[in-house]
Specification:
It is built from twelve helices and eleven strands. By secondary structure, the protein is an alpha/beta fold.
Length: 385
């Protein structure tokens, strides 16, 4: 039951059955949900039987109704994430109902801590609001003894209160962890620092859940069903927190990537130059130095194209004096230029939205071309990170 920002524009979709759309994204019920629903029905049946012993085998039907109502509340939790994420400028990719409740996947290009805070907090607040509504509805019913609607209303109030409060615990992958991430991000100025901090707190929470599940051992009891539940929850939290820490470290490494540092040096020639003049303008590279790229510029030094060295070398020497440089150059995408100090996620976002699929992007500072950025080199640097 968490919101999941994704760094990829089109992440793989969860497998399952599409039952509708919310915020422009498909709602998917995964096969694992049916297992969760069956297990929870068995788990909650004794609770129903304890409240209403006369139900007999009908207690299973009441427990199943409660489980469906619980997942409907989880779905509203995810709808809240999706609607706020879309309102904050994110592209929502899917809402999935899963073994662990559900998740909402959306693009991870948030530029402000407040956006992450609002998307995260609205989910648990939705459950707390639902818990209040269920409880008030229970109190409003006539006191004629406990019946099935009372059991469902009490269960709805307690389960939503638990889901809301538990998800507010300040550790990733819980919503409260994303809130902590946003707070640390706002204070430190680094989202990566916030992610790593919230991931470590998530690990502490995972250990706490495990220890809480082991407490009955101190009393000489060994509740196997409950212990398995705590082990599963602790494992889910631990692996989610560990993944978050790794993601934070990747984001930290990516933040050090800078356009100016990754760019190849250049020499510029005006539009209309010949291949011979362009090649003559390039100084010889010193040992260990990268050969300068030749950029064709137009009026006001606007970068127009980059010389294709292979194409230029294929022009016979006697024809280079008469062949225009534009004939052997790769055009640059208009308005794709990036500043040398643009770095990290801002750099990747710019390249994804402005390069138009081209491999080369000019680096421009104060109206002057200072380098050419090869997206293959950027991708390699990201993989190393």
């Amino acid at each position: 039951m968490n919101s999941t920002p994704s760094a990829r524009p089109t992440p793989p979709r969860s497998r399952g059955w599409k039952i509708g759309r919310v915020a422009g994204a498909p709602v998917i019920v995964t096969p694992s949900w049916f297992l969760a629903a069956a297990v929870l029905t068995v788990v909650f049946t004794p609770w129903v039987q304890g409240l209403m012993p006369d139900l007999g085998t009908s207690a299973y039907l009441v427990a199943a109704s409660f489980v469906i109502m619980l997942f409907a509340s989880v779905f509203l939790h995810e709808v809240a994430h999706a609607l706020v994420a879309r309102a904050r400028g994110q592209e929502v990719h899917e809402l999935a109902i899963t073994l662990w409740g559900g998740h909402t996947a959306y693009s991870g290009g948030m530029s402000r801590p407040v956006d992450g805070f609002l998307v995260a907090v609205v989910g648990p607040l939705t459950n707390i609001a639902l818990a209040t509504v269920f409880w008030l509805a229970f109190l409003a019913r006539a006191d004629n003894g406990l019946d099935v609607p009372d059991v469902l209303l009490i269960g709805g109030a307690l389960s939503n209160a638990f889901v809301g409060v538990f998800n507010l615990l300040p550790g990733l992958p819980l919503d409260g962890g994303q809130i902590l991430e946003a707070v640390v991000w706002a204070v430190s100025g680094s989202r990566a620092t916030g992610t790593i901090a919230a991931g470590w707190v998530g690990r502490v929470i995972a250990v706490g859940v495990l220890l809480w599940g082991l407490l009955p051992l101190l009393r000489g009891t060994f509740p196997q069903t409950e212990l398995i539940f705590y082990l599963l929850v602790a494992g889910f939290l631990w692996f989610g927190a560990t993944s978050a820490i790794a993601g934070g470290r990747r984001r930290e490494a990516i933040s050090s990537l800078r356009a100016g540092s990754l760019a190849d040096p250049v020499v510029t020639v005006p539009l209309g130059s010949t291949v011979a003049a362009a090649l003559a303008a390039r100084p010889a590279a010193r040992p260990g130095e990268v050969s300068r790229r030749i950029v064709v510029v137009g009026y006001d030094d606007v970068p127009l194209a980059v010389l294709d060295d292979d194409a230029a070398s294929s022009v016979p020497p006697e024809a280079r004096e008469h062949t225009g440089v534009d004939a052997v150059s790769v055009p640059l995408v208009p308005k794709s230029a990036v500043g040398p100090d643009v770095s990290g996620q801002d750099l990747l976002r710019h390249l994804a939205t402005s390069s138009g699929g081209a491999r080369l992007v000019p680096v421009v500072e104060a109206g002057r071309v200072t380098g050419v950025l090869d997206l293959a080199r950027v991708a390699m640097a990201v993989r190393r990170s």
